[in-house]
């Protein structure tokens, strides 16, 4: 009898223990490999780090969003707003909010007050790195608990792009921000499918499923973002099954290696990173058109693409990357022609070339810098590469120290972003309004500002696109910069990872983990 009772107790204990273990075992956790040494900050208005984008994308919503898997401006869909209207002149916009949407960690219902707070914060220099995108905002007011009105000083190209789930358009909890203060950077509170749970510096960030998510509880219980800056370590962890998805190595051999694996899905997607070399026209003899034309003809785009691989890159031929609203390829392309480059150098008065001196770069840009040095060396232009760390490079190029600046980036996919940030005179580095105009274009050679400004306030889309085309044609005629290549985002996932959407491109430069993403082992 005693023995039977002990057996029964043991059996009951085993069921309880196994039950708990089974529950833990069944928890769906997706492990993501991030190409970064650490997280940075998760205040979307202050963050400008690519590594943070996929994390913030799962935490926050915007008023609208790109349909997952796309960056098509014609496929923007409702997010926190269920619908919106605009005045005929596109200067007044009214957004009607979704009711019953709750912030993470018990911070209450999302209302117009939170949206107004977030957009005002995104528009302020002191609290946002994206404030310049919102210069057209005149007023943002709460009409009532679930209605927001935005009044613009002038029409903006794709106004919806400013309120979607990307950096400045992400909606924060006002209550949480005021409670946490500066700590909000590491304690983000949004309304997205996943809530912030844990951060271990230089190791990982953990998000947990938002049980109250209005689109439905996520199929995955947790996302663990692992910070693995070393590519080989990231790949090894992926192949061993410790990571389910990773950012890959931008190289043809790596793409072929992943494509050959039966249990792996390889993805190369846009919008890619567009790399352009900017000529500082305040430096002689870069102020001479024929010199800049010669440099353009001397640069072989194929060489720059082969750095990564032909299947994961494409030619950049215009100041605006392909796939962006307003892009045109109908511009002067300056296809590689060394004979023509040498002839132009002779016509410009430099048959033997000249010395441009030092230019700073970082390890990330070293291959590009060495190719620039080699290509330009063939027409007698000398360059001395000075290596610095990446943050120092960014600081120095904004102090106007370089005669030429190779720069790669991805922006919101509309022509105005590239044209304004790289070619408008207000964006010239060193100015209080400076962003990334390294060539001093618009000031050394005036005229493009008028086209960019006119396009920004043009309410008719076709007329707006025509102005953007004119701007691109003018820029390529004047050659303040030379577009080199577009490099796609390179990712890999295990076949059991079901994204829950068709992947064509995305704005996060990584896989978007949504409420529909699942692990089907």
Characterise this structure:
α12 packs parallel to α14 and α13 runs antiparallel to α14. Helix content is about 30%, strand content about 25%. It is α+β, with helices and mostly antiparallel strands and about 525 residues long. The protein is built from 14 helices and 19 strands. The relative contact order is 0.14. Strands 1, 8, 9, 10, 11, 12, 13, 16 and 17 form a 9-stranded mixed β-sheet that branches. Strands 4-5-7-6 form a 4-stranded antiparallel β-sheet, with helices on one face. A two-stranded antiparallel ribbon has the order 2-3. The protein is globular, with a radius of gyration of 26 Å. It starts with a helix and ends with a strand. The protein has 2 domains: about 240 residues, Periplasmic binding protein-like II (D-Maltodextrin-Binding Protein, domain 2, 3-Layer(aba) Sandwich); about 220 residues, Dipeptide-binding Protein, Domain 3 (Dipeptide-binding Protein, domain 3, Roll). About 5% of the residues have low confidence.
List the keywords.
alpha+beta, nine-stranded mixed sheet, 2 domains, four-stranded antiparallel sheet, D-Maltodextrin-Binding Protein, domain 2, Dipeptide-binding Protein, domain 3, 521 residues, 14 helices
């Amino acid at each position: 009898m005693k023995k039977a009772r002990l057996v029964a107790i043991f059996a009951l204990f085993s069921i309880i223990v196994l039950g708990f273990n089974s529950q833990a075992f069944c928890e769906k956790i997706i492990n993501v490999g991030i190409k970064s040494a650490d997280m940075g900050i998760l205040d979307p208005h202050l963050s400008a780090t690519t590594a943070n984008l996929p994390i913030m994308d799962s935490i926050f919503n915007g008023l609208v969003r790109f349909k997952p898997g796309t960056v098509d401006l014609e496929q923007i869909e409702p997010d926190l707003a269920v619908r919106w209207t605009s005045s005929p002149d596109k200067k007044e916009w009214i957004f009607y909010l979704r009711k019953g949407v709750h912030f993470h960690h018990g911070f209450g219902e999302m209302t117009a007050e939170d949206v107004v707070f977030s957009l005002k914060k995104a528009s302020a220099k002191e609290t946002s790195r994206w404030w310049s995108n919102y210069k057209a905002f005149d007023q943002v007011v709460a009409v009532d608990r679930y209605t927001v009105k935005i009044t613009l000083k002038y029409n903006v190209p794709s106004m919806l792009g400013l309120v979607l789930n990307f950096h400045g358009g992400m909606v924060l909890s006002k209550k949480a921000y005021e409670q946490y203060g500066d700590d909000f950077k590491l304690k983000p509170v949004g309304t997205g499918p996943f809530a912030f749970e844990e951060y271990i510096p230089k190791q990982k960030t953990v998000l947990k499923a938002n049980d109250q998510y209005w689109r439905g509880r996520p199929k995955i219980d947790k996302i663990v973002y692992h910070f693995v800056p070393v590519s080989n370590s990231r790949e090894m962890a992926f192949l061993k099954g410790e990571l389910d998805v990773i950012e890959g190595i931008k190289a043809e051999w790596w793409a072929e290696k992943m494509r050959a694996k039966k249990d792996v899905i390889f993805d190369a997607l846009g919008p890619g990173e567009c790399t352009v070399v900017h000529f500082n026209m305040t430096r002689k003899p870069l102020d001479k058109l024929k010199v800049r034309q010669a440099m353009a003809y001397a640069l072989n785009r194929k060489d720059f693409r082969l750095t990564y691989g032909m299947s994961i890159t494409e030619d950049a031929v215009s100041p605006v990357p392909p796939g962006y609203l307003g892009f045109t390829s109908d511009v002067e392309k300056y296809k590689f022609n060394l004979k023509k480059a040498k002839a132009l150098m002779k016509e410009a008065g430099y048959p033997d070339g000249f010395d441009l001196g030092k230019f700073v770069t970082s390890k990330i840009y070293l291959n590009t810098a060495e190719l620039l040095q080699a290509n330009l060396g063939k027409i007698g232009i000398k360059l001395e590469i000075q290596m610095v760390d990446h943050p120092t490079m960014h600081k120095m190029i904004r102090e106007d120290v370089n005669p030429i600046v190779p720069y790669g980036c991805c922006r919101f996919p509309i022509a105005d972003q590239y044209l304004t940030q790289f070619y408008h005179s207000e964006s010239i580095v060193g100015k209080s309004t400076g962003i990334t105009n390294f060539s001093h274009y618009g000031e050394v050679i005036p005229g493009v500002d008028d086209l960019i400004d006119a396009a920004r306030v043009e309410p008719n889309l076709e007329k707006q696109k025509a102005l953007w085309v004119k701007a691109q044609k003018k820029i390529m005629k004047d050659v303040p910069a030379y577009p080199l290549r577009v490099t796609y985002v390179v990712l890999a996932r295990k076949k059991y990872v079901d994204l829950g959407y068709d992947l064509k491109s995305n704005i996060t430069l990584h896989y978007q983990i949504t409420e529909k993403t699942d692990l089907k082992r």
